[in-house]
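Posting for a labmate who doesn't have an account.
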Amino acid sequence: MSARFGGPYHAGKLIWQGEAVYDDGGSIIDPGTPVEFECMVQIDSVTEAMRAEAGYTDKDVRLIILAPGLGKVVDTDAALEVLAGPHTGSYTIAGQSLDTLGFAFDGRGRGRLAG
Protein backbone atom coordinates (compact mmCIF):
# COMPACT_ATOMS: atom_id res chain seq x y z
CA MET A 1 0.00 0.00 0.00
CA SER A 2 2.78 2.43 0.95
CA ALA A 3 4.70 1.96 -2.31
CA ARG A 4 1.59 2.37 -4.41
CA PHE A 5 0.97 5.86 -3.07
CA GLY A 6 4.59 7.05 -2.78
CA GLY A 7 5.29 6.43 0.86
CA PRO A 8 5.65 7.08 3.67
CA TYR A 9 7.29 3.66 4.22
CA HIS A 10 10.07 2.50 1.94
CA ALA A 11 12.10 -0.70 1.63
CA GLY A 12 15.19 -0.92 3.78
CA LYS A 13 17.47 -3.31 5.58
CA LEU A 14 18.99 -3.38 9.02
CA ILE A 15 22.60 -4.55 9.18
CA TRP A 16 24.55 -5.75 12.20
CA GLN A 17 28.27 -6.34 11.69
CA GLY A 18 29.58 -9.73 12.71
CA GLU A 19 31.55 -10.40 15.87
CA ALA A 20 35.26 -10.14 15.06
CA VAL A 21 37.63 -12.91 16.14
CA TYR A 22 41.07 -11.80 17.35
CA ASP A 23 44.34 -13.69 17.65
CA ASP A 24 46.52 -13.57 20.79
CA GLY A 25 48.27 -10.45 19.48
CA GLY A 26 45.01 -8.53 19.07
CA SER A 27 44.84 -8.72 15.27
CA ILE A 28 41.52 -9.54 13.61
CA ILE A 29 41.66 -12.98 12.03
CA ASP A 30 37.95 -13.17 11.11
CA PRO A 31 35.72 -10.08 10.80
CA GLY A 32 32.58 -12.12 11.43
CA THR A 33 29.49 -12.51 9.30
CA PRO A 34 27.12 -9.53 9.02
CA VAL A 35 23.43 -10.13 9.74
CA GLU A 36 20.88 -8.38 7.51
CA PHE A 37 17.13 -8.07 8.00
CA GLU A 38 14.61 -6.58 5.57
CA CYS A 39 12.34 -3.85 6.91
CA MET A 40 10.17 -0.89 5.94
CA VAL A 41 11.27 2.59 6.99
CA GLN A 42 9.76 6.03 7.34
CA ILE A 43 12.06 9.04 7.67
CA ASP A 44 10.44 11.93 9.55
CA SER A 45 11.28 15.06 11.54
CA VAL A 46 12.65 14.48 15.03
CA THR A 47 10.42 14.98 18.07
CA GLU A 48 11.04 17.58 20.77
CA ALA A 49 12.12 14.76 23.10
CA MET A 50 14.73 13.64 20.54
CA ARG A 51 16.04 17.20 20.27
CA ALA A 52 16.63 17.15 24.04
CA GLU A 53 18.66 13.90 23.94
CA ALA A 54 22.43 13.96 24.39
CA GLY A 55 24.28 13.93 21.08
CA TYR A 56 21.45 15.47 19.04
CA THR A 57 22.47 17.50 15.97
CA ASP A 58 20.37 19.32 13.40
CA LYS A 59 21.29 16.55 10.90
CA ASP A 60 19.32 13.93 12.87
CA VAL A 61 16.07 12.41 11.60
CA ARG A 62 13.36 10.30 13.12
CA LEU A 63 13.41 6.68 11.95
CA ILE A 64 10.25 4.61 12.19
CA ILE A 65 11.22 1.04 11.36
CA LEU A 66 8.69 -1.73 10.72
CA ALA A 67 10.44 -5.08 11.05
CA PRO A 68 7.94 -7.83 11.82
CA GLY A 69 9.50 -11.05 13.00
CA LEU A 70 12.87 -9.43 13.71
CA GLY A 71 13.13 -11.06 17.13
CA LYS A 72 15.73 -8.58 18.39
CA VAL A 73 15.86 -4.95 19.38
CA VAL A 74 16.88 -2.36 16.83
CA ASP A 75 19.88 -0.91 18.62
CA THR A 76 22.79 1.44 18.04
CA ASP A 77 24.91 -1.49 16.81
CA ALA A 78 22.72 -1.70 13.71
CA ALA A 79 23.12 0.34 10.54
CA LEU A 80 20.17 1.11 8.29
CA GLU A 81 20.10 1.16 4.50
CA VAL A 82 17.04 2.81 2.96
CA LEU A 83 16.77 1.19 -0.46
CA ALA A 84 14.05 3.26 -2.13
CA GLY A 85 12.26 6.58 -1.90
CA PRO A 86 13.38 10.16 -1.36
CA HIS A 87 15.64 9.30 1.60
CA THR A 88 17.62 6.48 -0.03
CA GLY A 89 20.97 6.02 1.68
CA SER A 90 22.78 4.86 4.79
CA TYR A 91 21.89 5.84 8.35
CA THR A 92 23.38 5.23 11.76
CA ILE A 93 21.00 4.65 14.64
CA ALA A 94 21.55 7.01 17.56
CA GLY A 95 18.70 5.99 19.81
CA GLN A 96 15.65 3.80 19.73
CA SER A 97 12.56 2.59 21.51
CA LEU A 98 9.56 0.42 20.78
CA ASP A 99 6.55 2.52 19.81
CA THR A 100 3.50 2.74 22.06
CA LEU A 101 1.59 0.04 20.17
CA GLY A 102 4.58 -2.30 20.06
CA PHE A 103 4.79 -2.84 16.30
CA ALA A 104 7.56 -0.46 15.22
CA PHE A 105 10.90 0.83 16.41
CA ASP A 106 10.87 4.60 16.73
CA GLY A 107 14.25 6.28 17.08
CA ARG A 108 16.72 8.90 16.08
CA GLY A 109 19.24 8.40 13.30
CA ARG A 110 21.72 10.27 11.18
CA GLY A 111 22.52 9.94 7.51
CA ARG A 112 26.07 8.98 6.57
CA LEU A 113 27.95 10.53 3.70
CA ALA A 114 28.61 8.24 0.77
CA GLY A 115 32.14 7.02 0.23
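Reply:
Got it, the C-alpha coordinates are right above this. The first helix runs from residue 48 to 52.
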